[in-house]
Amino acid sequence: MDTMRDRFAPVALRLLDEDPRVAVVLAEIGAAGFVEARRRHPDRVINVGIREQLLIGAASGLALTGMRPIVHTFASFLVERPFEQVKLDLGHQGVGAVLVSAAASFDWPAGGYTHMAPGDVALLDTLDGWTVHVPGHPDEAETLLRHAVAAGDDKVYVRLSVQSNAQALPVDGARFHTVREGRSGVVVAVGPMLDAVLDATTGLDVTVLYAATVRPFDAAALRRATATAGADIVLVEPYLAGTSTAVANDALADVPHRVLGLGVGRRELRRYGTVEEHVAAHGLDARSLRERISGFMTGTRMPVRA
């Protein structure tokens, strides 16, 4: 199966062909995938080189002229390094762009911590008005990218990963999807965490919601689920643990409830390892998730994680 990033360049080329407002802005990374796109649309495929602040600034300038820029590089270089430009050049000026990241939290361990960005969604949460898509399958990534480009002039972040669920689910860029129904708690699986969550909750009497779009947060779906499944909620996210606990709490502000946020820990893991080893070290593999979810639902002590 191709990866989400494998799918990205061909879809972006089709969007360039279909919509004269679309432009692609790169900072060297990923440029090899856009050779044909640059040949066909030389004025709308721009590589600024290894200049991430300029990457966002150029996208903002294009947006000010009425273009719909798609901006791409690794998450650490797209959100973290040029964060001031994301805040000011896009947010303060009131223009939008589609930021499409790669490498996710730790998809390229050999790149070291400079190429890891588990805090990207939490960082964007400090800004107003961002839509955040976290697809769990290449088909979903294509659908959500098209949603993002069509979303007027909104500010949209599409978080691509090499981690993927085995099957795509129908996603509409807004609502959570009910995958399994139970009566003893709710587990929200975000993007590529779904397969591990389904394995972890096999035989448990819990509702599993799938979220491929996390901002705006589908508060209505969570409230509906807790009405029948109880108000113990576990959020399993492929980025910084606890990123969505505040919005989940807000969704249930008038309902007695408990929330556990599982995700990538704050402690830096200084050995390269593999993606699978990082998943396990952060307690996001199916076995660890089962222990932690069961422990929370039953009130037993859970192992401490990074």
TrEMBL record:
SUPFAM superfamilies with a match to the protein in the record: Thiamin diphosphate-binding fold (THDP-binding), TK C-terminal domain-like
GO molecular function terms listed in the Swiss-Prot or TrEMBL record: magnesium ion binding
Pfam families: Transket_pyr
Domain of life assignment: Bacteria
InterPro entries (alphabetical): PDH/Transketolase (IPR051157), THDP-binding (IPR029061), Transketo_C/PFOR_II (IPR009014), Transketolase-like_Pyr-bd (IPR005475)
CDD domains linked: TPP_PYR_DXS_TK_like (cd07033)
Residues of the Transketolase-like pyrimidine-binding domain: 2-167
Protein name: Transketolase
Protein species of origin: Streptomyces spinoverrucosus
